């Protein structure tokens, strides 16, 4: 993706041609700058008690970004050299002590649920309260969308700091290219659930390799998931649904879960109604296609 | 002028040396320096363009390359019956019989092949491409298939392919090998431009066994020494050679290279960078040769069988090395080096590595004879391939 074609281009001033929208752009930039300053300060803070002034939830319109990203390009990404090099205390400050502290020597909780391409974080926020005792991580490749989710989590954590459950300390987001670097973050068999909600359909045939479910990536997901772990997929694009079903179906490490199972699973319900895309499809009265797969103990040919 | 030789392979069964110069493959008898036979990728290129409809291609600003379909990889099957290579622009795999250099088959791939490994059963080869996919193919074509070149159909050009990759990375596949059998199982080890070294079960390639974590730059070379089957050596853009126990993923030793390479004092301001473009083993001496393409140093190391013993640096020699092929059982190897003299052209050398790792040139007259005979004619030096592509793998991300 070339920076010049992205609407996120942050050239200050702009050309005379873009004059009419210049004030809007200015406003977006100012907003994002103030959010950025606060994010740096509060990202790894543990909120305690009732704050006098509640942090407002961020406004989505200030974080617009092109919906596509080329997973093959070399983005300037931060990722650990290996899972053991990852400092999770920065993402879950209330639950994981910093690596330098004495408590860090004892076993720490690990991320168990991953939302791959979490977008604006709708599912993530719902999973926080559904699984209050598990760590949930959202991963998103678009910078500004990631920042929106970060700001959303900061605001939610602070707003609920006085409550007994201290909600939202168990969710976090990071910018990552999940197609390339998931094994850098998670150990073999660390995850119990992986969500793929409304992924980029990459319609053109020659772009199919950029799709998030392929037979070769399914092997990587099987590596990350423990036996019995679940891959959740949902899309409103029938062709993509069929593609995902085909590739997971053919994979010896996965087996599809039944319609009855889908109906009874809470996560499927959340995925249908709480993702931003899910809501959009709801408004447009479109179809939603769900397919869930369990990771087998041993390959079945 | 004549194009330099970019790839070498040695056939231990018939004792022949294979040289790939540009688009040409030449077989030499290295005991006499006589050219035995040759083959050119022109033969499949002609086949490919024969009934191709003229296609509108994106206008290229650069001039069209003259040497379009050069060999980029070359290896010889363990049993010596086949010589296998992959080519540049046609993105094709080529399998030739070593008896008469006849084309067994060639096939075009949707993405350019970038790594090649032959399993030691001599029946299957693995081919990795620029987009990270790895395909498994027979070396010997099945009885029903006809020899010759198979093109991609237009549908395949657009999307799928008639064979599915057996595993893949989402990054350029740079090196690939199949391990010897360890406790009854075999594995494929693959490396990419994104620092990953992956161990996958083979042939049950849907099971990723582990990753070997520790590299911070592209990994361009992998070697499992035949005398230490659980050891893996890997190198690339990092300033160290990694020595792993690939059966556990443990990084046994980081062999720092800076001290042996020595930054040139004249280039003080230039940053110290390493680009390992080759690792070769000399089994009978338990020595490996490692080439750094930035300093142009060929280094020799003793790699002990036991992983508790450290590797030992032995010696170094400066060469502008393009490729090497270990030939005999007595520490001998053939080199192809870049000839920067006015005439340029191929330059072949023969070396002998002794027990202390010292590299000496031998049989100079014979090597000279081969250098003078090897021939792929090009119009000018502008037509010479980019011969040092390894350091281009370093990432320079902007956003």
From TrEMBL, chain A:
Keywords noted in UniProt: Methyltransferase, Nucleus, RNA-binding, S-adenosyl-L-methionine, Transferase, tRNA processing, tRNA-binding
Any Pfam family the entry gives: Methyltransf_4
EC number: 2.1.1.33
Annotated metabolic or biological route of this protein: tRNA modification; N(7)-methylguanine-tRNA biosynthesis
Single Gene Ontology BP annotation: methylation
Biased composition annotated in UniProt, kind: Polar residues: 1-12
Enzyme class name: transferase
Tree of life domain: Eukaryota
Reactions mediated catalytically: guanosine(46) in tRNA + S-adenosyl-L-methionine = N(7)-methylguanosine(46) in tRNA + S-adenosyl-L-homocysteine
Keyword Disulfide bond among record annotations: no
Molecular functions (GO terms): methyltransferase activity
Alphabetized PROSITE patterns for the sequence: SAM_MT_TRMB
InterPro entries to which the protein is assigned, alphabetical: SAM-dependent_MTases_sf, Trm8_euk, tRNA_(Gua-N-7)_MeTrfase_Trmb
Active-site residues per Swiss-Prot or TrEMBL entry: 200
Sites where the protein binds S-adenosyl-L-methionine: 117, 140-141, 177-178, 197, 275-277
Subcellular location: Nucleus
Stretch list, region Disordered: 1-45
Family, per entry: Belongs to the class I-like SAM-binding methyltransferase superfamily. TrmB family.
Subunit note: Forms a complex with TRM82.
NCBIfam families the record matches: tRNA (guanosine(46)-N7)-methyltransferase TrmB
Job description of the protein: Catalyzes the formation of N(7)-methylguanine at position 46 (m7G46) in tRNA.
Protein name, as recorded: tRNA (guanine-N(7)-)-methyltransferase
Organism: Myxozyma melibiosi
UniProt lineage: Eukaryota, Fungi, Dikarya, Ascomycota, Saccharomycotina
TrEMBL record, chain B:
Primary residence: nucleus
Function of the protein: Required for the formation of N(7)-methylguanine at position 46 (m7G46) in tRNA. In the complex, it is required to stabilize and induce conformational changes of the catalytic subunit.
Keyword Repeat set for record: yes
Entry similarity comment: Belongs to the WD repeat TRM82 family.
Localization annotation: Nucleus
Domain of life: Eukaryota
Pathway assigned to this chain's UniProt record: tRNA modification; N(7)-methylguanine-tRNA biosynthesis
InterPro entries associated with the record: Quinoprotein_ADH-like_sf, Trm82, WD40/YVTN_repeat-like_dom_sf
Protein name (database record): Transfer RNA methyltransferase 82
Entry keywords, A to Z: Nucleus, Repeat, tRNA processing, WD repeat
Organism for this UniProt entry: Myxozyma melibiosi
């Amino acid at each position: 993706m070339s920076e010049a074609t992205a609407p996120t281009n942050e050239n200050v001033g702009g050309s005379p041609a873009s004059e009419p929208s210049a004030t809007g752009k200015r406003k977006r930039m100012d907003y994002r700058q103030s959010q950025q300053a606060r994010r740096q300060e509060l990202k790894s803070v543990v909120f305690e008690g009732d704050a006098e002034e509640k942090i407002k939830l961020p406004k989505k319109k200030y974080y617009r970004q092109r919906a596509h990203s080329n997973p093959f390009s070399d983005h300037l990404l931060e990722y650990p050299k290996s899972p053991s090099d990852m400092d999770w205390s920065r993402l879950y400050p209330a639950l994981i002590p910093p690596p330098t502290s004495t408590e860090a020597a004892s076993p720490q909780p690990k991320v168990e649920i991953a939302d791959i391409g979490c977008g604006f974080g709708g599912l993530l926020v719902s999973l926080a309260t559904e699984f209050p005792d598990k760590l949930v991580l959202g991963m998103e490749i678009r910078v500004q969308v990631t920042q929106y989710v970060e700001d959303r989590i900061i605001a939610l954590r602070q707003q609920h700091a006085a409550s007994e459950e201290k909600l939202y300390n168990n969710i976090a987001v990071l910018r990552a290219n999940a197609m390339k670097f998931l094994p850098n973050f998670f150990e073999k068999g660390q995850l119990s659930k992986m969500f793929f909600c409304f992924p980029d359909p990459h319609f053109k045939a020659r772009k199919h390799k950029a799709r998030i479910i392929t037979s070769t990536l399914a092997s990587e997901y099987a590596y990350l998931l423990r036996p019995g772990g679940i891959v959740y997929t949902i899309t409103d694009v029938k062709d993509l649904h069929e593609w995902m079903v085909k590739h997971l179906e053919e994979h010896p490490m996965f087996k599809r879960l039944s319609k009855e199972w889908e109906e009874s699973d809470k996560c499927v319900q959340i995925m249908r109604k709480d993702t931003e895309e899910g809501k959009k499809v709801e408004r447009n009265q479109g179809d939603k296609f769900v397919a869930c797969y369990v990771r087998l103990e041993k390959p079945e040919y | 002028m004549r194009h330099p030789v970019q790839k070498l392979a040695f056939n231990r069964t018939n004792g022949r040396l294979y040289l790939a110069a540009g688009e040409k493959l030449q077989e030499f008898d290295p005991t006499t320096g006589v050219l035995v036979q040759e083959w050119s990728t022109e033969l499949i290129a002609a086949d490919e363009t024969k009934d191709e409809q003229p296609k509108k291609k994106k206008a290229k600003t650069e001039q069209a390359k003259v040497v379009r379909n050069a060999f980029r990889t070359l290896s010889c099957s363990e049993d010596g019956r086949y010589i296998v290579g992959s080519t540049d622009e046609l993105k094709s795999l080529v399998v030739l019989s070593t008896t008469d250099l006849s084309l067994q088959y060639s096939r075009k791939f949707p993405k350019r092949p970038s790594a090649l490994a032959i399993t030691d059963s001599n029946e299957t080869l693995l081919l990795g491409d620029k987009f990270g996919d790895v395909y498994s193919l027979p070396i010997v074509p099945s009885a029903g298939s006809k020899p010759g070149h198979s093109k991609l159909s237009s549908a395949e050009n657009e999307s799928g392919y008639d064979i599915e990759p057996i595993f893949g990375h989402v990054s350029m596949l740079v090196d690939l090998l199949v391990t010897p059998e360890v406790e009854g199982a075999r594995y494929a080890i693959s490396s990419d431009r994104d620092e990953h070294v992956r161990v996958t079960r083979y042939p049950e390639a849907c099971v990723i066994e582990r990753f070997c974590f520790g590299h911070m730059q592209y990994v361009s070379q992998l070697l499992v020494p035949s005398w230490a089957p659980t050891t893996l050596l890997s190198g690339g853009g990092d300033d160290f050679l990694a020595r792993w126990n690939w059966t556990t993923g443990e990084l046994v030793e980081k062999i720092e290279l800076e001290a042996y390479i020595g930054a040139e004092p004249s280039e003080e301001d230039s940053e110290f960078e390493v680009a390992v473009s080759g690792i070769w083993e000399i089994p009978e001496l338990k020595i490996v040769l490692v080439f750094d393409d930035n300093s142009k140093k060929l280094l020799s190391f003793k790699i002990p069988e036991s992983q508790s013993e450290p590797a030992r640096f032995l010696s170094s020699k400066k060469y502008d090395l393009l490729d090497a092929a270990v030939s005999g059982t007595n520490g001998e190897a053939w080199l192809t080096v870049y000839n920067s003299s006015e005439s340029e052209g191929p330059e072949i050398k023969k070396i002998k590595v002794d027990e202390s790792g010292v590299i000496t040139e031998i049989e100079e007259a014979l090597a000279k004879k081969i250098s003078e005979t090897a021939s792929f004619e090009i119009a000018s030096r502008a037509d010479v391939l980019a011969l040092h592509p390894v350091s281009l793998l370093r990432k320079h991300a902007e956003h």
